[in-house]
Amino acid sequence: MGYAVLHLDKAKGADSGMSAHIERTIQPKNADQERTHLNKELIQFPDGVKNRTQAIQHRLDTAGLKRKVGKNQVHAIRILLTATHEDMVQIEQQGRLDEWCQDNIDWLRQTYGADNLVSAVLHMDESTPHLHATIVPIVETERRKQKKEQNVKRTYRKKVSAPRLCADEVMSRPRLKRYQDTYAQLMGKYGLQRGIEGSEAQHISTHQYYRMLMEQGKDIQEDVDLLLKQKEQAEQELARIRSERKTEELKNTAAKTATTVLKGVNSLLGSNKISRLEAENNRLQAALGTKDEQIEQLQRDMQKQQTQSSNDLRRTKEEMQKTIDGKQSTIDKILRWFPIVGEYLRIENECFKHGFTPNQTDKLLTGNPLKHTGWLRTDWRGTNVWADSVTAQVVHQTKQKLLLTIEQTPIGQWLNQQLEKRRMQREEQEQTRIRGVRL
Protein backbone atom coordinates (compact mmCIF):
# COMPACT_ATOMS: atom_id res chain seq x y z
CA MET A 1 0.00 0.00 0.00
CA GLY A 2 1.49 3.32 -1.08
CA TYR A 3 1.22 6.77 0.47
CA ALA A 4 -0.97 9.74 -0.39
CA VAL A 5 1.02 12.98 -0.81
CA LEU A 6 -0.42 16.35 0.28
CA HIS A 7 1.95 19.32 0.57
CA LEU A 8 1.10 22.99 1.24
CA ASP A 9 3.44 25.90 0.60
CA LYS A 10 2.94 29.65 1.01
CA ALA A 11 3.36 31.93 -2.01
CA LYS A 12 4.11 35.61 -1.53
CA GLY A 13 3.17 38.25 -4.05
CA ALA A 14 1.97 37.35 -7.54
CA ASP A 15 3.92 34.04 -7.50
CA SER A 16 4.61 34.46 -11.22
CA GLY A 17 7.61 32.10 -11.12
CA MET A 18 5.48 29.15 -10.03
CA SER A 19 2.80 30.16 -12.56
CA ALA A 20 5.41 29.87 -15.31
CA HIS A 21 6.31 26.36 -14.07
CA ILE A 22 2.70 25.21 -13.69
CA GLU A 23 1.47 26.63 -17.02
CA ARG A 24 4.67 25.54 -18.84
CA THR A 25 5.46 29.00 -20.24
CA ILE A 26 8.96 27.95 -19.21
CA GLN A 27 9.70 24.29 -19.97
CA PRO A 28 11.47 22.51 -17.06
CA LYS A 29 14.27 20.04 -17.81
CA ASN A 30 12.50 17.09 -16.17
CA ALA A 31 9.34 17.46 -18.30
CA ASP A 32 8.69 15.51 -21.51
CA GLN A 33 7.68 18.12 -24.13
CA GLU A 34 5.95 15.43 -26.19
CA ARG A 35 3.47 14.89 -23.30
CA THR A 36 2.97 18.52 -22.27
CA HIS A 37 -0.24 18.72 -24.34
CA LEU A 38 -1.74 16.15 -21.91
CA ASN A 39 -1.59 18.66 -19.03
CA LYS A 40 -5.03 20.03 -18.06
CA GLU A 41 -6.40 23.06 -16.20
CA LEU A 42 -9.32 21.61 -14.20
CA ILE A 43 -10.80 24.92 -12.96
CA GLN A 44 -12.79 27.19 -15.29
CA PHE A 45 -11.43 30.75 -15.04
CA PRO A 46 -13.88 33.67 -14.70
CA ASP A 47 -14.57 35.84 -17.76
CA GLY A 48 -11.57 37.99 -18.64
CA VAL A 49 -9.14 35.85 -16.59
CA LYS A 50 -6.58 34.06 -18.75
CA ASN A 51 -4.07 32.47 -16.36
CA ARG A 52 -3.29 31.48 -12.78
CA THR A 53 -1.71 34.80 -11.77
CA GLN A 54 -4.76 36.74 -12.94
CA ALA A 55 -7.06 34.24 -11.19
CA ILE A 56 -5.31 34.90 -7.85
CA GLN A 57 -5.66 38.67 -8.28
CA HIS A 58 -9.30 38.33 -9.38
CA ARG A 59 -10.16 36.47 -6.17
CA LEU A 60 -8.45 39.16 -4.06
CA ASP A 61 -10.30 41.92 -5.92
CA THR A 62 -13.74 40.31 -5.60
CA ALA A 63 -13.54 38.85 -2.06
CA GLY A 64 -14.72 42.07 -0.35
CA LEU A 65 -11.54 42.60 1.68
CA LYS A 66 -11.54 45.66 3.94
CA ARG A 67 -7.79 45.94 4.40
CA LYS A 68 -5.21 46.66 1.73
CA VAL A 69 -3.22 43.58 0.62
CA GLY A 70 0.53 44.04 1.05
CA LYS A 71 2.95 43.21 -1.76
CA ASN A 72 4.93 40.79 0.43
CA GLN A 73 1.85 39.28 2.03
CA VAL A 74 0.98 35.66 1.26
CA HIS A 75 -1.53 35.97 -1.61
CA ALA A 76 -1.95 32.27 -2.29
CA ILE A 77 -1.13 28.79 -1.03
CA ARG A 78 0.32 26.18 -3.40
CA ILE A 79 -0.92 22.63 -2.84
CA LEU A 80 0.71 19.55 -4.36
CA LEU A 81 -1.47 16.41 -4.51
CA THR A 82 -0.12 13.07 -5.71
CA ALA A 83 0.93 9.65 -4.41
CA THR A 84 3.72 7.11 -4.59
CA HIS A 85 4.93 6.74 -8.19
CA GLU A 86 3.86 3.10 -8.59
CA ASP A 87 0.36 3.84 -7.25
CA MET A 88 -0.17 6.84 -9.54
CA VAL A 89 0.91 4.77 -12.53
CA GLN A 90 -1.55 2.02 -11.47
CA ILE A 91 -4.38 4.56 -11.10
CA GLU A 92 -3.66 5.84 -14.61
CA GLN A 93 -3.47 2.34 -16.10
CA GLN A 94 -6.79 1.39 -14.45
CA GLY A 95 -8.47 4.38 -16.13
CA ARG A 96 -9.28 6.01 -12.76
CA LEU A 97 -7.20 9.17 -13.20
CA ASP A 98 -10.22 11.37 -14.05
CA GLU A 99 -12.05 9.99 -10.98
CA TRP A 100 -8.96 10.70 -8.83
CA CYS A 101 -8.81 14.29 -10.17
CA GLN A 102 -12.50 14.92 -9.47
CA ASP A 103 -12.20 13.56 -5.91
CA ASN A 104 -9.27 15.91 -5.32
CA ILE A 105 -11.20 18.91 -6.70
CA ASP A 106 -14.23 18.09 -4.52
CA TRP A 107 -12.01 17.74 -1.43
CA LEU A 108 -10.23 21.06 -2.14
CA ARG A 109 -13.53 22.93 -2.56
CA GLN A 110 -15.03 21.39 0.57
CA THR A 111 -11.89 22.02 2.65
CA TYR A 112 -10.86 25.52 1.53
CA GLY A 113 -14.01 26.91 -0.07
CA ALA A 114 -15.08 26.70 -3.72
CA ASP A 115 -14.41 30.42 -4.33
CA ASN A 116 -10.91 30.17 -2.85
CA LEU A 117 -9.87 27.40 -5.27
CA VAL A 118 -8.70 29.44 -8.29
CA SER A 119 -6.57 26.92 -10.20
CA ALA A 120 -5.88 23.19 -10.40
CA VAL A 121 -3.55 21.85 -13.10
CA LEU A 122 -2.89 18.16 -13.80
CA HIS A 123 0.70 17.52 -14.92
CA MET A 124 1.15 14.45 -17.12
CA ASP A 125 4.54 15.34 -18.67
CA GLU A 126 6.65 14.40 -15.64
CA SER A 127 7.49 10.92 -14.36
CA THR A 128 4.64 10.83 -11.80
CA PRO A 129 1.17 12.33 -12.53
CA HIS A 130 0.37 15.04 -9.97
CA LEU A 131 -1.95 17.97 -9.32
CA HIS A 132 -0.91 21.60 -8.66
CA ALA A 133 -3.76 23.37 -6.86
CA THR A 134 -3.84 27.06 -5.87
CA ILE A 135 -6.06 28.52 -3.17
CA VAL A 136 -6.38 32.11 -1.94
CA PRO A 137 -6.55 31.98 1.91
CA ILE A 138 -9.70 34.09 2.40
CA VAL A 139 -11.30 33.45 5.82
CA GLU A 140 -14.30 34.99 7.57
CA THR A 141 -13.57 34.00 11.17
CA GLU A 142 -12.99 36.69 13.81
CA ARG A 143 -9.44 37.99 14.01
CA ARG A 144 -7.53 36.68 17.02
CA LYS A 145 -6.78 39.38 19.61
CA GLN A 146 -3.46 39.97 21.29
CA LYS A 147 -3.04 38.70 24.85
CA LYS A 148 -2.85 42.18 26.35
CA GLU A 149 -6.31 42.97 24.99
CA GLN A 150 -8.02 39.88 26.45
CA ASN A 151 -8.69 41.42 29.89
CA VAL A 152 -9.63 44.86 28.59
CA LYS A 153 -13.32 45.60 28.96
CA ARG A 154 -14.97 46.40 25.65
CA THR A 155 -16.85 49.68 25.46
CA TYR A 156 -17.70 49.50 21.74
CA ARG A 157 -20.09 47.48 19.65
CA LYS A 158 -18.74 44.14 18.41
CA LYS A 159 -17.83 44.17 14.72
CA VAL A 160 -19.36 41.69 12.31
CA SER A 161 -16.84 39.20 10.90
CA ALA A 162 -15.66 40.25 7.44
CA PRO A 163 -13.61 38.47 4.81
CA ARG A 164 -9.87 38.77 5.35
CA LEU A 165 -6.65 37.34 3.92
CA CYS A 166 -4.89 35.12 6.47
CA ALA A 167 -2.60 32.29 5.39
CA ASP A 168 -1.42 31.63 8.98
CA GLU A 169 -4.93 30.64 10.04
CA VAL A 170 -5.41 28.33 7.05
CA MET A 171 -2.01 26.70 7.70
CA SER A 172 -2.20 26.44 11.49
CA ARG A 173 -0.79 23.23 12.94
CA PRO A 174 -4.17 21.71 13.98
CA ARG A 175 -5.63 22.41 10.55
CA LEU A 176 -2.62 20.97 8.73
CA LYS A 177 -3.01 17.76 10.73
CA ARG A 178 -6.73 17.65 9.92
CA TYR A 179 -6.02 18.17 6.21
CA GLN A 180 -3.68 15.15 6.20
CA ASP A 181 -6.23 13.00 8.06
CA THR A 182 -9.25 13.83 5.87
CA TYR A 183 -7.23 13.60 2.64
CA ALA A 184 -5.86 10.18 3.61
CA GLN A 185 -9.41 8.97 4.35
CA LEU A 186 -10.52 10.10 0.87
CA MET A 187 -7.54 8.45 -0.84
CA GLY A 188 -8.18 5.14 0.93
CA LYS A 189 -10.48 4.11 -1.95
CA TYR A 190 -7.37 4.08 -4.20
CA GLY A 191 -5.37 1.89 -1.82
CA LEU A 192 -3.38 4.84 -0.39
CA GLN A 193 -2.60 5.55 3.24
CA ARG A 194 -1.55 8.55 5.32
CA GLY A 195 2.12 9.34 5.74
CA ILE A 196 3.82 8.65 9.06
CA GLU A 197 2.50 11.15 11.59
CA GLY A 198 5.26 13.17 13.21
CA SER A 199 7.83 12.13 10.61
CA GLU A 200 10.89 14.38 10.38
CA ALA A 201 11.07 13.95 6.58
CA GLN A 202 10.94 17.28 4.74
CA HIS A 203 9.46 18.10 1.37
CA ILE A 204 11.88 19.30 -1.30
CA SER A 205 10.71 22.44 -3.09
CA THR A 206 10.76 22.72 -6.88
CA HIS A 207 13.72 25.10 -6.78
CA GLN A 208 15.64 22.73 -4.47
CA TYR A 209 14.77 19.80 -6.76
CA TYR A 210 16.21 21.55 -9.82
CA ARG A 211 19.24 22.65 -7.84
CA MET A 212 19.83 19.01 -6.84
CA LEU A 213 19.46 17.95 -10.47
CA MET A 214 22.09 20.51 -11.50
CA GLU A 215 24.43 19.38 -8.72
CA GLN A 216 23.91 15.72 -9.69
CA GLY A 217 24.60 16.67 -13.28
CA LYS A 218 27.83 18.35 -12.21
CA ASP A 219 28.81 15.28 -10.17
CA ILE A 220 28.07 12.98 -13.10
CA GLN A 221 30.07 15.23 -15.43
CA GLU A 222 32.96 15.19 -12.96
CA ASP A 223 32.77 11.36 -12.83
CA VAL A 224 32.75 11.22 -16.64
CA ASP A 225 35.74 13.58 -16.80
CA LEU A 226 37.54 11.45 -14.21
CA LEU A 227 36.82 8.23 -16.15
CA LEU A 228 38.01 9.86 -19.38
CA LYS A 229 41.15 11.03 -17.62
CA GLN A 230 41.72 7.53 -16.21
CA LYS A 231 41.17 6.06 -19.68
CA GLU A 232 43.70 8.50 -21.14
CA GLN A 233 46.18 7.62 -18.39
CA ALA A 234 45.61 3.91 -19.04
CA GLU A 235 46.22 4.39 -22.76
CA GLN A 236 49.41 6.34 -21.99
CA GLU A 237 50.51 3.62 -19.58
CA LEU A 238 49.79 0.98 -22.22
CA ALA A 239 51.81 2.91 -24.80
CA ARG A 240 54.65 3.31 -22.30
CA ILE A 241 54.58 -0.41 -21.49
CA ARG A 242 54.67 -1.29 -25.18
CA SER A 243 57.59 1.10 -25.68
CA GLU A 244 59.39 -0.39 -22.71
CA ARG A 245 58.67 -3.85 -24.09
CA LYS A 246 60.38 -2.98 -27.35
CA THR A 247 63.25 -1.46 -25.42
CA GLU A 248 63.50 -4.56 -23.26
CA GLU A 249 63.47 -6.77 -26.36
CA LEU A 250 66.33 -4.74 -27.81
CA LYS A 251 68.16 -4.95 -24.49
CA ASN A 252 67.48 -8.68 -24.36
CA THR A 253 68.93 -9.15 -27.85
CA ALA A 254 71.97 -7.07 -26.94
CA ALA A 255 72.34 -9.00 -23.69
CA LYS A 256 72.23 -12.32 -25.49
CA THR A 257 74.89 -11.11 -27.93
CA ALA A 258 77.03 -9.82 -25.11
CA THR A 259 76.56 -13.09 -23.23
CA THR A 260 77.75 -15.07 -26.22
CA VAL A 261 80.79 -12.86 -26.58
CA LEU A 262 81.51 -12.90 -22.86
CA LYS A 263 81.16 -16.66 -22.72
CA GLY A 264 83.88 -16.85 -25.30
CA VAL A 265 85.96 -14.39 -23.31
CA ASN A 266 85.21 -16.37 -20.13
CA SER A 267 86.45 -19.51 -21.75
CA LEU A 268 89.59 -17.65 -22.46
CA LEU A 269 89.91 -15.55 -19.28
CA GLY A 270 87.81 -17.57 -16.78
CA SER A 271 86.01 -14.39 -15.44
CA ASN A 272 82.76 -14.62 -13.33
CA LYS A 273 81.28 -11.42 -14.90
CA ILE A 274 79.31 -13.59 -17.34
CA SER A 275 77.28 -15.10 -14.48
CA ARG A 276 76.22 -11.66 -13.25
CA LEU A 277 75.16 -10.64 -16.75
CA GLU A 278 73.12 -13.83 -17.14
CA ALA A 279 71.36 -13.14 -13.82
CA GLU A 280 70.54 -9.57 -14.93
CA ASN A 281 69.26 -10.86 -18.25
CA ASN A 282 66.97 -13.35 -16.46
CA ARG A 283 65.63 -10.54 -14.23
CA LEU A 284 64.86 -8.38 -17.26
CA GLN A 285 63.05 -11.23 -18.98
CA ALA A 286 60.95 -11.86 -15.84
CA ALA A 287 60.05 -8.16 -15.65
CA LEU A 288 59.08 -8.19 -19.31
CA GLY A 289 56.77 -11.17 -18.70
CA THR A 290 55.07 -9.29 -15.83
CA LYS A 291 54.48 -6.29 -18.10
CA ASP A 292 52.90 -8.57 -20.71
CA GLU A 293 50.51 -9.97 -18.10
CA GLN A 294 49.57 -6.45 -16.98
CA ILE A 295 48.80 -5.44 -20.55
CA GLU A 296 46.63 -8.51 -21.13
CA GLN A 297 44.75 -7.94 -17.83
CA LEU A 298 44.14 -4.28 -18.73
CA GLN A 299 42.79 -5.30 -22.14
CA ARG A 300 40.50 -7.90 -20.54
CA ASP A 301 39.16 -5.31 -18.05
CA MET A 302 38.43 -2.82 -20.85
CA GLN A 303 36.66 -5.49 -22.89
CA LYS A 304 34.60 -6.53 -19.84
CA GLN A 305 33.51 -2.92 -19.21
CA GLN A 306 32.50 -2.48 -22.84
CA THR A 307 30.48 -5.72 -22.77
CA GLN A 308 28.76 -4.73 -19.53
CA SER A 309 27.85 -1.30 -20.91
CA SER A 310 26.47 -2.85 -24.10
CA ASN A 311 24.35 -5.33 -22.11
CA ASP A 312 22.97 -2.57 -19.84
CA LEU A 313 22.05 -0.44 -22.85
CA ARG A 314 20.38 -3.39 -24.58
CA ARG A 315 18.32 -4.27 -21.48
CA THR A 316 17.23 -0.66 -21.08
CA LYS A 317 16.09 -0.49 -24.70
CA GLU A 318 14.20 -3.77 -24.35
CA GLU A 319 12.40 -2.57 -21.20
CA MET A 320 11.46 0.72 -22.86
CA GLN A 321 10.20 -1.12 -25.93
CA LYS A 322 8.06 -3.43 -23.75
CA THR A 323 6.53 -0.40 -22.04
CA ILE A 324 5.84 1.28 -25.37
CA ASP A 325 4.35 -1.93 -26.82
CA GLY A 326 2.10 -2.34 -23.78
CA LYS A 327 0.79 1.21 -24.01
CA GLN A 328 0.32 0.91 -27.76
CA SER A 329 -1.63 -2.33 -27.25
CA THR A 330 -3.91 -0.57 -24.78
CA ILE A 331 -4.44 2.33 -27.19
CA ASP A 332 -5.23 -0.08 -30.03
CA LYS A 333 -7.84 -1.85 -27.89
CA ILE A 334 -9.46 1.45 -26.90
CA LEU A 335 -9.64 2.58 -30.54
CA ARG A 336 -11.04 -0.81 -31.59
CA TRP A 337 -13.67 -1.02 -28.84
CA PHE A 338 -14.58 2.68 -28.85
CA PRO A 339 -14.14 4.08 -32.41
CA ILE A 340 -15.45 7.46 -31.27
CA VAL A 341 -12.25 7.90 -29.23
CA GLY A 342 -10.21 7.87 -32.44
CA GLU A 343 -12.58 10.44 -33.89
CA TYR A 344 -12.07 12.69 -30.84
CA LEU A 345 -8.30 12.36 -31.25
CA ARG A 346 -8.60 13.31 -34.92
CA ILE A 347 -10.66 16.39 -34.06
CA GLU A 348 -8.15 17.30 -31.33
CA ASN A 349 -5.30 17.22 -33.88
CA GLU A 350 -7.41 19.26 -36.30
CA CYS A 351 -8.01 21.90 -33.59
CA PHE A 352 -4.27 22.11 -32.88
CA LYS A 353 -3.53 22.28 -36.61
CA HIS A 354 -5.79 25.31 -37.09
CA GLY A 355 -4.33 27.14 -34.08
CA PHE A 356 -6.67 26.49 -31.14
CA THR A 357 -5.00 26.29 -27.72
CA PRO A 358 -5.21 23.14 -25.54
CA ASN A 359 -7.74 24.81 -23.22
CA GLN A 360 -9.88 25.89 -26.18
CA THR A 361 -9.63 22.40 -27.66
CA ASP A 362 -10.77 20.79 -24.41
CA LYS A 363 -13.84 23.03 -24.38
CA LEU A 364 -14.59 22.32 -28.05
CA LEU A 365 -14.40 18.56 -27.49
CA THR A 366 -17.18 18.84 -24.90
CA GLY A 367 -19.48 20.01 -27.71
CA ASN A 368 -19.95 23.49 -26.25
CA PRO A 369 -19.68 26.53 -28.56
CA LEU A 370 -16.54 28.67 -28.21
CA LYS A 371 -16.17 32.37 -28.99
CA HIS A 372 -12.81 32.91 -30.68
CA THR A 373 -10.89 35.97 -31.82
CA GLY A 374 -7.47 35.52 -33.40
CA TRP A 375 -5.58 34.01 -36.29
CA LEU A 376 -6.56 30.58 -37.66
CA ARG A 377 -4.16 28.54 -39.77
CA THR A 378 -5.30 27.23 -43.16
CA ASP A 379 -4.16 24.19 -45.11
CA TRP A 380 -2.06 26.52 -47.27
CA ARG A 381 1.42 26.83 -45.85
CA GLY A 382 2.10 30.24 -44.31
CA THR A 383 -1.49 31.43 -44.87
CA ASN A 384 -3.60 32.54 -41.89
CA VAL A 385 -7.10 33.97 -41.59
CA TRP A 386 -8.20 36.49 -38.98
CA ALA A 387 -11.31 35.40 -37.05
CA ASP A 388 -13.17 38.22 -35.31
CA SER A 389 -15.45 36.96 -32.52
CA VAL A 390 -16.58 33.88 -34.41
CA THR A 391 -18.33 30.86 -32.89
CA ALA A 392 -16.49 27.54 -33.16
CA GLN A 393 -18.09 24.22 -32.25
CA VAL A 394 -17.57 20.47 -32.66
CA VAL A 395 -20.80 18.79 -33.80
CA HIS A 396 -21.82 15.22 -34.65
CA GLN A 397 -22.01 14.90 -38.42
CA THR A 398 -23.08 11.28 -37.91
CA LYS A 399 -23.16 8.98 -34.85
CA GLN A 400 -19.48 8.10 -35.27
CA LYS A 401 -18.33 11.19 -37.20
CA LEU A 402 -17.43 14.60 -35.70
CA LEU A 403 -17.07 17.90 -37.55
CA LEU A 404 -15.25 21.10 -36.52
CA THR A 405 -17.31 24.13 -37.62
CA ILE A 406 -16.99 27.92 -37.66
CA GLU A 407 -20.30 29.78 -37.68
CA GLN A 408 -22.04 26.41 -38.33
CA THR A 409 -19.88 25.91 -41.47
CA PRO A 410 -17.16 23.24 -41.79
CA ILE A 411 -13.91 24.94 -40.90
CA GLY A 412 -12.19 24.10 -44.21
CA GLN A 413 -15.07 25.59 -46.20
CA TRP A 414 -15.21 28.65 -43.92
CA LEU A 415 -11.46 29.28 -44.27
CA ASN A 416 -11.69 29.01 -48.07
CA GLN A 417 -14.56 31.52 -48.05
CA GLN A 418 -12.48 33.97 -46.03
CA LEU A 419 -9.50 33.52 -48.38
CA GLU A 420 -11.78 34.16 -51.38
CA LYS A 421 -13.16 37.32 -49.75
CA ARG A 422 -9.64 38.54 -49.06
CA ARG A 423 -8.63 37.84 -52.68
CA MET A 424 -11.63 39.77 -54.02
CA GLN A 425 -10.85 42.69 -51.71
CA ARG A 426 -7.27 42.81 -52.98
CA GLU A 427 -8.51 42.79 -56.59
CA GLU A 428 -10.95 45.63 -55.89
CA GLN A 429 -8.18 47.63 -54.22
CA GLU A 430 -5.90 46.99 -57.19
CA GLN A 431 -8.61 48.10 -59.66
CA THR A 432 -9.22 51.23 -57.60
CA ARG A 433 -5.50 51.99 -57.58
CA ILE A 434 -5.23 51.51 -61.36
CA ARG A 435 -8.22 53.81 -62.02
CA GLY A 436 -6.67 56.42 -59.77
CA VAL A 437 -3.38 56.26 -61.71
CA ARG A 438 -5.16 56.62 -65.06
CA LEU A 439 -7.04 59.67 -63.84
Describe this structure in words.
- Strand 10 and strand 11 form a beta hairpin.
- The radius of gyration is 37 Å and the shape is extended.
- Helices cover 55% and strands 17% of the residues.
- It is built from eleven helices and twelve strands.
- The model has no long low-confidence stretch (mean pLDDT 82).
- With 439 residues, the protein is an alpha+beta fold.
- A six-stranded mixed beta sheet has the order 2-4-5-3-1-8, sandwiched between helices. Strands 9-10-11-12 form a four-stranded antiparallel beta sheet.
Q: What is the topological layout?
A:
Elements: E1 2-12, H1 16-22, E2 40-41, H2 52-62, E3 74-83, H3 85-93, H4 97-112, E4 117-123, E5 130-135, E6 138-139, E7 164-165, H5 167-170, H6 173-187, E8 192-193, H7 206-269, H8 273-337, H9 339-354, H10 358-365, E9 370-377, E10 384-398, E11 401-406, E12 409-410, H11 411-438
Parallel strand pairs: 1-8
Antiparallel strand pairs: 1-3, 2-4, 3-5, 4-5, 6-7, 9-10, 10-11, 11-12
> What do the pLDDT scores average to?
82
Helix content: 55-70%
The run of helices and strands is EHEHEHHEEEEHHEHHHHEEEEH
Our estimate of the beta-strand percent is 15-25%
Q: Strand order across the biggest sheet?
A: 2-4-5-3-1-8
Q: Which key features would you list for this structure?
A:
439 residues; 6-stranded mixed beta sheet; 11 helices; 12 strands
Summed up, what is this model?
The protein has helices at 16-22, 52-62, 85-93, 97-112, 167-170, 173-187, 206-269, 273-337, 339-354, 358-365, 411-438; strands at 2-12, 40-41, 74-83, 117-123, 130-135, 138-139, 164-165, 192-193, 370-377, 384-398, 401-406, 409-410.
